[in-house]
């Protein structure tokens, strides 16, 4: 099945997509970061909610122990974290810039109704009901996925060679 999908897909996901990667397509698996640019180009993409929940993860900040005796640098690090969690930053960068759901609930007050709908803040469903956290995969599982992907890519390349002949 993976080989079939890889062989007959129009393009393969290579990380964070750009608007050029998705332009004129009708369906994509995407982080959604390119959606604001697509909208500016006249392509109004929408999220399709998954019945099984959205796979998700928790991004985080870490303040290194090396700042323990460096109060000024530690203060800068703490202020940067506070700034990125502010409603203003969340609205401008996460929602408007990346089309991503903000983590600060106060952000909603700064958004238009359209933005609220785009990132799903109009849905009364809690995040726990919408998202499932991705588990950390052990090395063996990651290697297994890597092997499956390499096999699918080999089959894709073979199919492309056959089609050129």
Describe the protein's architecture and organization.
It is a single chain. The chain has a two-stranded parallel sheet. The two termini are 24 Å apart. It is globular. The model has no long low-confidence stretch (mean pLDDT 85). The relative contact order is 0.13. It has helices spanning 2-8, 19-22, 35-40, 71-85, 87-98, 113-118, 127-130, 139-164; strands at 54-56, 131-133. It is mainly alpha-helical and 165 residues long. It has one domain (2-137). Helices cover 48% and strands 4% of the residues. It is built from 8 helices and 2 strands; from the N terminus they run H-H-H-E-H-H-H-H-E-H.
Structural key phrases:
165 residues, mainly alpha, two-stranded parallel sheet, 8 helices, 48% helix
List the helices and strands and how they pair.
Layout: H1 2-8, H2 19-22, H3 35-40, E1 54-56, H4 71-85, H5 87-98, H6 113-118, H7 127-130, E2 131-133, H8 139-164
Parallel strand pairs: 1-2
Helix pairs in contact: 1-8
